[in-house]
């Protein structure tokens, strides 16, 4: 035999046989640790080692590989194996070792005497003598495989020789399953001593796993190692089941399931807990495991503890099975009916425990042969969440499972429409077939209209909305034979959905005039009032008319004293539609009583149809919009911020129209509060490309334009505001109160030196606001007009703006008008008036929390007070402005030249000169030079 000196394990003066090629991929480190004990043993000192690991980790293979290396190194090898079937036979393992060490050529006591008639001490001494004699001839390698299954007498024999072979060349190597509960009279340390070499066999790495599987290293081999934990036995069981395109995490072996069940039989209740863990998967909490296994909690805890120690279950608060391959193997070993029943029981337990719908639905999917009537609602809710989180195919699977239940025609139509929505994400032609199938199931008119309306409300926009509109149109056509009352509310909801998703102007509301006359149903009447309100809003003709129609719609919505409830009519769904909600809140923000009524209508117990909209979001947003309109910026921002966090949790801030509206309103609010960095950060998150809805994108543009102007990016802000106006014009929206874009665009134009553009925008704004007739837009337009006009016209416009705004709750706009009037009065030399006006502006803007406006008003107030203070270098009490103008006039400058130099109007210059003449006691400009000189000499 070829030999070489092993540089890792040198034996003094001895040569070690050359090791054969290893046959255990990934176990080189463990074998090296074992062979590192050889030199000491060959030198005459005993050693011991323990190999521990989970079931299937290759303990036996590693032991036999080490034994082969030991034999090559000159050891006598004796290996015994513990067996569950022989663990009750005294001396079974000891006899195996004695037989292996028996020398046929030398006389020795029969091994049968180990547990024969001889006494206990004689038997133990006999076993020791066999070992000692063998060790006296050659170094001895004693291997005991599965020592945890050895009989008690054999364990006593091994414990007996432990201290007696210390100075003999004996290497004792044991293998044991990790965490195996001790149930013998001899502990492991009694056999190997207190300081054995302990070697834990963990799962092999990716490279070794690839070798076992016959694969090239890569993602597939890594996935297989993860599914099995790198357990060699599991990898070998997985190998023949690998197919192209199959996820290793979905594979299992019924044979492995059988083996594991068999091995757990010796532990009370472990098989039942094992099956429950396989069924529950990631839902495997302690209480659910015990209840599903129908095991007493204390007994369940003991079984779980045992399996955690054996590494069959994970050591965590969720004692799931260690590897997906093990779970799949147990499920494969379970009869299909048993699996279905257990999954249905698990679904019920999870539902009772308040688990998320998605987790309950995962078990309902597996309970295919079991009728579970309550499962339909859970499956639909889970499917809704799955669609909006981008998992449409999972949603479709849930809904197809729901269709297996016994459903009424109405519920079947609802599930089919929801399934069409899910399938539309990945199979549009199939979705169209589902819609036709749903239409064919229409039975009850009211139910059908309600379900179609719900579908429209559940779809945010874009292509999803087009599907909903198509489905609703087909159902409306089916219901048309029932008369206008039957179909009208659905037609209205369809119109609103279409109006909110169109890229161009919607059709005229009044095109439906002929169909209104025969309407008698309260729900249809409410829809009629709502559409009339929106028609008035879009035309921008009459605020009074629009508010009146909104009030009619609100008075009928959810009225408990009205006619019997219709599923589609009395719960306020119309006001939840985002197109309608956005315009209604914009109009009603100045009507506190109507805002309260609107919030009550929106405050329903059920969850909103749109999964992105949190419960209670619509009344919260409506209240925030009303607070912002009244100038209560701090409270409004609290409403918007708290609501935005909830939209963020649902992923709806940048996609749901209501979420986008909330974000845009918050940006506008922050601009007025002076929180520019926060507003910039929020706008950076928004998707201006995806948010192409009629009002959501428009309001985003408006908010960004305001922020840009406020932070010095005036040109970019001006373009945003003009783009906002073009979009509204393109959609035929002439209501000036939705976003006052012209007012801010005119200010930006003035800052850019484009006075003509500013004047044009102001004129357009005043005309539109006068036509509409509400105080806020009119007061805002008058304020803008005062900025672009001169002299008395400007002051009259600003004074009228203040008078108009005092009749509305628009305190921030009032403070703005007061600031502009006070500034103008100060420029005109009316310092006393300016001081009072600006003092009111400061107080009101501070009350609103509008810090930028308050700072500006305070600055103008200080300037007005300084202007009222007499100049120190004259004795006639000329103010600083009067003295400055008088000096310039005395130097020969005309009133026009003075006005140009000081950025004043000629009228203002004339007023200041008149005051100077009066104080100096002179009749006119000719005496001005002498009077000023005399005044200075006197001082």
From TrEMBL:
<protein>
    <submittedName>
        <fullName>LuxR family transcriptional regulator</fullName>
    </submittedName>
</protein>
<dbReference type="InterPro" id="IPR036388">
    <property type="entry name" value="WH-like_DNA-bd_sf"/>
</dbReference>
<feature type="repeat" description="TPR">
    <location>
        <begin position="815"/>
        <end position="848"/>
    </location>
</feature>
<dbReference type="InterPro" id="IPR011990">
    <property type="entry name" value="TPR-like_helical_dom_sf"/>
</dbReference>
<keyword id="KW-0802">TPR repeat</keyword>
<dbReference type="InterPro" id="IPR041664">
    <property type="entry name" value="AAA_16"/>
</dbReference>
<dbReference type="InterPro" id="IPR027417">
    <property type="entry name" value="P-loop_NTPase"/>
</dbReference>
<dbReference type="InterPro" id="IPR019734">
    <property type="entry name" value="TPR_rpt"/>
</dbReference>
<dbReference type="GO" id="GO:0006355">
    <property type="term" value="P:regulation of DNA-templated transcription"/>
</dbReference>
<dbReference type="Pfam" id="PF00196">
    <property type="entry name" value="GerE"/>
</dbReference>
<feature type="region of interest" description="Disordered">
    <location>
        <begin position="1"/>
        <end position="25"/>
    </location>
</feature>
<keyword id="KW-0804">Transcription</keyword>
<keyword id="KW-0805">Transcription regulation</keyword>
<feature type="domain" description="HTH luxR-type">
    <location>
        <begin position="871"/>
        <end position="937"/>
    </location>
</feature>
<keyword id="KW-0238">DNA-binding</keyword>
<dbReference type="GO" id="GO:0003677">
    <property type="term" value="F:DNA binding"/>
</dbReference>
<dbReference type="InterPro" id="IPR016032">
    <property type="entry name" value="Sig_transdc_resp-reg_C-effctor"/>
</dbReference>
<dbReference type="Pfam" id="PF13191">
    <property type="entry name" value="AAA_16"/>
</dbReference>
<dbReference type="InterPro" id="IPR000792">
    <property type="entry name" value="Tscrpt_reg_LuxR_C"/>
</dbReference>
